[in-house]
Amino acid sequence: MRAKGSDLWASALRDAVPTPYWTDRPDRPVAREPLSGVETTDLVIIGGGYSGLWTALLAKERDPHRDVVLVEAGLCGGAASGRNGGFCAASLTHGLANGAERFGAEVARLERLGRRNLDEIEQTIRRHGIECDWERTGELSVAVEPYQVDELRSAAEDALDYGQDAVFLDRSAVQAEVHSPTYLAGLWDRDRVAMVDPAKLAWGLRAAALSAGVRIYEDSPAVKLSRDGSGVAVYTPEGVVRAQHAALATNAFPLLRRLRRYLVPVYDYALMTEPLSEDQRASIGWRNRQGLGDLANQFHYYRITPDGRILFGGYDAIYHFGSRISVSLERRNATFETLARHFFETFPQLADSVRFSHAWGGVIDTCTRFCPFFGTAMSGRVAYAAGYTGLGVGATRFGAQVMLDLLSGVPTERTRLRFVRTRPLPFPPEPLRSVGIGLTRWSLARADARQGRRNLWLRTLDRAGLGFDS
Predict the structure, then answer these.
(1) How far is CA 360 from CA 61, 73, 89, 247, 357, in A?
(2) Cβ contact 363:331 at 8 Å
């Protein structure tokens, strides 16, 4: 007898392990020894996710004699960098539309720099022999409501104007790519997004940095950053690093007080299925293995893994009062059940036959412009990059280059960009912060239910330069 409704979702989730699929592996690296005592170095990097690892590796590539120390609170790649969907995009601005809206005539240059950045990531992976299941399959954006079809047509024209290899797919064409009754049209960006195993990429960058001579201390959370003579000092529970310069790569955990106005932590969630059988794979098509995402405000992202699993995430982005961060918030059964329901609505041919092996969540940082921002502190001794809003797999390498440029004090093409020189608008303090975020989230859900029509609150945010519809 066919399971119905909540029984189906509960059954599919029953054996799901509450940990990220990517890091739940026997070949997970063992953490290196924590920092103990005093270290002196040229550059200290705080944070061992993509941003910090790219900064460490690029610093050594620029100057092999530069002494570099990296401190990480847990295991490198153990937080957002190791649990995301594995979409490595060329865009630096969270999409062409967001970039054009906020940075105007500069967006063509940003698109060029982003494409070069993606190419250089691929070259680095090959040069260092990083085995991370890199697949340059592109991304397929799908319309699931009639009003979104025209949006895709317009986006296809804009993409062609910027020389992108993008093609609009009508209903029959998109169904030929991936079989879902919910798809009305698609836009396939064919070479500006790669699929990657996010944890293997982080661990590969860690190995490359160690091979280059970077000293990495794990299980060493930075608890304080301060001036120290002509340099800076980073304090951990058992040690201190004194350095001429510091790069702050801490995502949703800012050490600098000034950054707390610009960042909020939000929780993102995902499911991973068990491997599909050959018949199940045939029922959905997906031979070209693109990353997938729909056009709703509360959107889903999903992709297929080399062993035939489907990752399905997104929709809910949960903020907790006071910017609360806790391990206890990484599991949210209501969201997992919602994602399971949406998964089977997208692929009803898999209902009653597919189960989820993993269900997890975690915190990412976001800012009011929905793409990264950059800056310096302590008279140029410290550089930071933050606010990636879930698009950090590729953009963090560009952010690492920016931080190193800023610390050098020598202007570059990157540091001359308005994208780099400007900051997002700050979030208000509590309780206005929670009220505003909650009202925005409710309004976006309402717009999704009303054929994209934006209410007065969303239109006000649009006029203030705070609107976002991705």
Answers:
(1) 35, 20, 22, 29, 10
(2) no
